[in-house]
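hiii, so i know i said id send this last week but things got crazy w the move. better late than never?? heres the sequnce for the chain we talked about at the cafe, plus the structure i predicted for it. fair warning i was half asleep when i ran it
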Amino acid sequence: MDHLRVATFDVTSGTVDELAEVIQQPGSFVDIFHALPGFKSYSLLEVSPTQVMSVSVWETHEEAEEAIAASAEWVATHMADTVKRTSNTSAAEILVINARD
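okay and structure toks below
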């Protein structure tokens, strides 16, 4: 089964939409994930107008853990004045998934 990386952030400067634009720019956060082994997907969820949840799917637990380290470094370097992590980032195995084809 695949593994999930999950983190929650408060947006402390700007808007959720502005954050979404920044992380999709070339060479930005999303591109870092695409370059890592085992990457399957990434989603940014708006929890509230000032909070987001970052979720990515990886082939293995180890790859999800590597993504945690890579994302923490990128956020600390590029977004320290924009977001504040509000929950510990974690990696977990997906036990059940039910999707339409």
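btw The helical segments are 16-24, 29-35, 61-78. thought thatd interest u
miss u guys!!
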